[in-house]
Amino acid sequence: MKKITTLALTTILLSSLTFSTAFAFTDVDKGQAEAVSFLKDRGVVSGIDHDHFVPKGKISYAQSVQMIVKGLGLNLNTIRFSTPPAASNIYTNIPNNAWYSDAFVIAYYNGLEIPKDVNPNATITREQFGDLLIRALEKNGDFPTVKMFIEIKDEDQINPEYQGRLQRMLLYKITELDKAGKLHPKSDLTRGEAAVWIYNAIHVLDAHTSKVVAQ
Q1: Beta bridge partners of 60
Q2: Strand partners, 58
């Protein structure tokens, strides 16, 4: 019975769509409440039911791509296609009728490098999510180059391809290292952490856009 219940909860977490709701979640701690509420009101995230967001639950690759695309406002508005793009022509494991297929197509054409054989139901690591998030953020404008370096105590665990973007993620203050100076790049990201990262990225983008407009 316990195994069935666990399986059911996992299925809900992996397949939940991101629609706006009109309620507050009772299981989100104070440090993540503002971010989750903000994204909920924008229709970027939803809970597994009326009261629970499950912030400590793992987030799937599909949910991550959907949240990043919606949160950072990525789209295909400036691209003209002779035939509508199909997810199955890009990815081997993304069916065209999946709720997340459009997000993966948008991500692809906006330069978010996702493996063609990605498993959409697999969990995503902190470094993978961070890399996608910074790619999405910087797709929205020319951000100034910041010649600073933040020491990461577990830097040797970071995929070299992600190094620069994870450094910029820290410099943008989208997230921060723990008290030991570690990023834990290979650890799975949680739903609550993902919400906070996207929330912070949106504010970085808004500040950058406002500055560009004012110039």
Answers
A1: 123
A2: 190
Dist. CA 65–CA 101, nearest whole Å: 10
Q: How far, rounded to the nearest angstrom, does the alpha carbon of residue 107 sit from its chain's CA centroid?
A: 11
SS3 per-residue string spanning the chain:
CHHHHHHHHHHHHHHCCCCCCCCCCCCCCHHHHHHHHHHHHCCCCCCCCCCCCCCCCECEHHHHHHHHHHHCCCCCCCCCCCCCCCHHHCCCCCCCCCCCHHHHHHHHHCCCCCCCCCCCCCECEHHHHHHHHHHHHHCCCCCCCCCCCCCCCCHHHCCHHHHHHHHHHHHCCCCCCCCCCCCCCCCECEHHHHHHHHHHHHHHHHHHHHHHHHC
Q: Taking the model in full, what pTM does it have?
A: 0.86
Please tell me the predicted confidence (pLDDT) of residue 215.
55
Q: In the structure, what pLDDT confidence band is assigned to residue 19 with cuts at 50, 70 and 90?
A: very low
